[in-house]
Specification:
Length: 461
């Protein structure tokens, strides 16, 4: 996408301004989105974006700019403007580029740039929509979305790195709204991966629609949730959003290096119940948060974060490594060329255990089963969180009694880790978009069903 002579000229110029490190990040992204609204195609949108991110590092200070202009003169002008307050004599010289291919762990059949598959995606959504509406005459509204992104990147840096990669993301979502008089409730089903539209071969459109409406109908008939401190069983898959938000961000050197994380000095210490082991893995084949290389050109990897309750690693990018001394973990990520990379999560999850779901429920005298989790708020630095339960059930005398609505889980990441006493076998991952200092990126969350012995539940019963 960018010739090596231009890239070398730009990097040489950055080093001539006294930078310790210079990098050129080139990106071309193509996207296509189909939206449906109750039996009809609402919109079909597509677009292409191209740009170049320019990064210079002085010690641990990062200077960053971007442009859509591929001329060397324009990129050198931007670098000169960025470095106007940090100019100094050159301290290093450029290393010649050594191009290498990125590994390809993620098989692909249908590239967006070769086959947009609009008709196939429309057919999938309309079939899911029909199944969602057929579930009940109380389903008042349905919305569907299929989105694909093909992202091509090329990275050059002053250490001689020259590497390129192509990433493909596909996601399908169906939302149902049930209404009965003045009462309304919502249900949703979403699946995706680092894959082309062959994702549809792994999905059943009718099941997608039926599951969205099932959740909506469960919530429509739910009773008010009791409140207070009690044990909670959190369901698999997207239940892992709590660990991601309340704990995972605290393990990124983005916060660790600033000592803005309560875990910054806990490496080697027990921060969780021994039942808890957690990982961040970018190598899982075709998973939503996987990569071949990170956005700094380093091959991605599996990173063990917590082992049997002990904190054993952080998520480390280049600058985080310079600031903390920890080895890089292939976790430098960014939304696009408009952002400098930072340490970010990939597929982050609590690993499977040996406990049975029925045993978890049977161990509860009075509590909640949070089958599906939704969004919430987290306080940076402390991990204090407030998460909504989008499908929940009241548990009494070791049995699931009835659905509950308007339930929230309130605690802190450090506290909830120590209250997890049982972890099941039914592990699964779920898709999400993670927002942080380097923009919004695809990230998967996951876990098996697990039991939290004591947590504050908010409800209005």
């Amino acid at each position: 996408m960018l010739d090596t002579h231009t890239a070398q000229s730009v990097i040489d110029h950055g080093l001539s301004l006294g930078a310790d490190f210079a990098e050129v990040f080139v990106e071309k992204s193509q996207s296509s989105t189909v939206n449906t609204l109750r039996e009809q195609v609402q919109s079909v949108e597509s677009g292409i974006d191209f740009g170049i991110g320019l990064r210079m590092v002085y010690g641990t200070k990062v200077l960053y700019g971007y442009t859509n202009d591929t001329s060397a003169d324009e990129m050198m002008r931007i670098l000169s403007d960025l470095a106007s307050r940090d100019l100094r004599d050159p301290v290093i010289t450029m290393t010649s580029f050594d191009y290498r291919d990125s590994p390809d762990r993620h098989p692909l059949k249908q590239m967006l740039s070769h086959d947009p598959a609009i008709e196939s995606r429309v057919a999938f959504l309309l079939k899911a929509d029909a199944a969602a509406r057929a579930a009940s005459n109380l389903i008042s509204q349905t919305r569907g979305m299929c989105r694909e992104v093909e992202q091509r990147i090329e990275i050059f840096n002053s250490e001689g790195l020259h590497i390129a990669d192509t990433r493909h993301y596909a996601r399908a979502t169906m939302t149902s709204i049930a209404a009965d008089g003045s009462e309304q409730a919502t249900g949703m089903r979403s699946d995706g991966g680092m894959i082309g539209w062959e994702l549809s071969e792994k999905l059943d459109a009718e099941q997608t629609g039926a599951e969205a409406s099932r959740q909506a109908m469960v919530n429509l008939g739910a009773k008010a949730c009791p409140s207070g401190r009690m044990p909670v069983v959190i369901g698999n898959g997207f239940g892992g959003v709590i660990f991601h938000e309340a704990c995972g961000h605290l393990l990124e050197t983005t916060s660790v290096a600033k000592r803005a994380s309560v875990f910054h000095d806990k490496l080697g210490e027990m921060i969780a119940n021994p039942a808890v082991s957690a990982s961040d893995d970018g190598t899982l084949v075709n998973e939503w948060g996987s990569l071949n290389i990170d956005d700094e050109g380093m091959e991605t990897q599996h990173t063990q974060l917590i082992k049997d309750g002990e904190l054993v690693s952080f998520l480390v990018d280049r600058i985080g490594s310079q600031q903390t001394g920890y080895e890089r973990t292939g976790s430098g990520r960014r939304e696009s060329y408009k952002y400098a990379p930072a340490s970010r999560m990939r597929n982050t999850f609590i690993e499977s255990g040996d406990d049975e779901f029925d045993e978890m429920i049977a161990s509860i005298d009075r509590g909640i089963y949070a089958a599906q989790m939704g969004g919430g708020s987290v306080q940076p630095g402390t991990g204090e969180f407030n998460f909504a339960v989008t499908e929940g059930y009241y548990v009494e005398d070791g049995k699931i009694q009835h659905p509950v609505k308007a339930a929230t889980l309130i605690s802190t990441g450090p506290a909830v880790l120590k209250e997890i006493s049982m972890v099941g076998r039914d592990f699964s991952l779920a898709c999400g978009m993670c927002g942080s200092v380097s923009g919004a990126i695809p990230a998967a969350v996951g876990q098996a069903s697990l039991k939290v012995d004591d947590i504050l539940v908010g409800g209005n019963a």
